[in-house]
Design goal:
single chain, alpha+beta, 13 strands, 19% helix, globular
Length: 237
């Protein structure tokens, strides 16, 4: 069969697309393996993370409880005042002290904040990404802090894109860039530690505008511990 210029060009395009798709899946497969493996990650049903948040010279204790894909509760204490953020299914509520513009009573979470919080119910977003309806685009290989990384554009089924940067040597996520409260924010992840055969970042840093840099240090991770789901229910005022 004679190969026409058009056919040759078409075949080249298909070959390029196929290699591109394969390289994305190779990166994802190595990333999942580096975290602990697909079987290990699929077995995670609940997580409890105890952290310290450092900001403007203060260390704020924080605890996040997750039922993966279903509910989350984050609670921290600032100068004796509790701050709570809860997502339960498709609804959310929070408690803000007066010093943060709240009343100290439970209130409904704003829709944009709820949407952002719901995205965090999936702790391993690239695990089974095709089944989740997530689209991945390999933007290219870049440098972050002098290290080679793979830049992936991730678009979930909600249509909200964000960027993940995966270290080309360790295959751990080193940075996430996404829209936060109408602005593009960056989260830098480092110092991964293993708990029950799964690696979690011990340190996360995020720029917070006038507040400066927020540093989250994970002190303890509990995998598949017992969680009383009553903690996700909005209490009466």
């Amino acid at each position: 069969m004679k190969t026409t210029p058009f056919l040759a060009s078409a075949l080249a395009v298909f070959a390029t697309v196929g290699a591109f798709a394969q390289s994305v899946d190779e990166i994802v497969d190595k990333h999942i393996a580096a975290l602990g493996g697909a079987d290990k990650l699929k077995g995670v049903k609940t997580l409890v993370m105890e952290q310290s948040i450092s900001v403007q010279g203060m260390d704020i204790p924080s605890k996040t409880t997750l039922v993966l894909g279903k509910a989350s509760r984050s609670e921290s204490t600032v100068m004796g005042n509790s701050m709570i953020q809860v997502v339960d299914g498709s609804s959310g509520w929070m408690v803000r002290p007066a010093m943060m513009g709240g009343t100290g009573d439970p209130e409904d979470m704003p829709a944009d904040q709820l949407k952002q919080q719901m995205g965090q119910l999936d702790v391993f977003p690239l695990l089974g990404y095709k089944e989740k309806g997530t689209q991945l685009e390999l933007v290219g290989k870049e440098k972050v802090d002098g290290k080679d990384v793979y830049h992936l554009k991730v678009t979930g089924k909600d249509g909200q894109p964000y960027d993940e940067y995966i270290d080309a040597t360790t295959y751990m996520v080193s940075k996430i860039k996404r829209s936060m409260n109408g602005q593009v924010g960056e989260i830098v992840l480092s110092d991964y530690k293993e708990t029950d055969g799964i690696k979690f970042p011990k340190t996360m840093e995020m720029e917070a505008g006038q507040m400066g840099t927020l540093t989250f240090t994970t002190e303890k991770v509990t995998v598949n511990g017992n969680v009383d789901e009553a903690i996700f229910k909005k209490p009466a005022k």
